[in-house]
Structure formats: C-alpha cells, structure tokens
Design goal:
Number of strands: 2
Shape: elongated
Mean pLDDT: 77
Strand content: under 5%
Helix content: 25-40%
Number of helices: 2
Low-confidence stretches: none
Distance between the termini: 45 Å
C-alpha cells in the first residue's frame, strides 16, 4: 500500500490525492479544512469507503512545553522542547 492508497483498498483517485497533498502543505486551518472537505466529498461520491468516525488526538501541555510544527502529529517526542520554568 502507498501512503495515499486509502486503507489498502487499492482505490486511487488523482484529484483526491492532489487535494490531500495540498491540504497537508497548507498551514491556514480554514483553507486546509476546505481542501479536506472537498477530498471527503470525492471519497464519498466514489463510495470507496464509508468513514464511520474520524480520529482525533488531544494534547494538553504546560505552557513551557513547545511542539514545533508537526511534532504533535508525528508520533514522536524527539522535537518537543521543554523550556526553563
């Protein structure tokens, strides 16, 4: 399976792939959400899968704990900085 092959179903759609890649590169939350909503629409129209839930991670940290962009979602703590407090 490739990273963009949806859950190893071997379903691929170039327009969907472009939207997901563009969304992953945009830091503006509203613009990213619009791209992902469009990708969702394409996915649902093709009926490749029917998502029942969407995963979500919640991170609570003291103000002196800093997560560089993407560190919280990367699955590893190697880039997390603990500032003096």
């Amino acid at each position: 399976c490739t990273a963009l092959t949806f859950f190893c179903t071997h379903w691929e759609e170039p327009a969907y792939n472009r939207l997901v890649v563009r969304g992953s590169q945009i830091s503006n939350h509203l613009q990213r959400l619009q791209l992902y909503e469009e990708a969702d629409r394409l996915l649902m129209e093709s009926a490749a899968i029917v998502p029942l839930t969407y995963g979500r991670n919640h991170w609570l940290a003291k103000p002196w704990i800093k997560y560089p962009k993407g560190a919280a979602s990367s699955g590893g703590p190697t880039d997390i900085v603990i500032e003096p407090h």
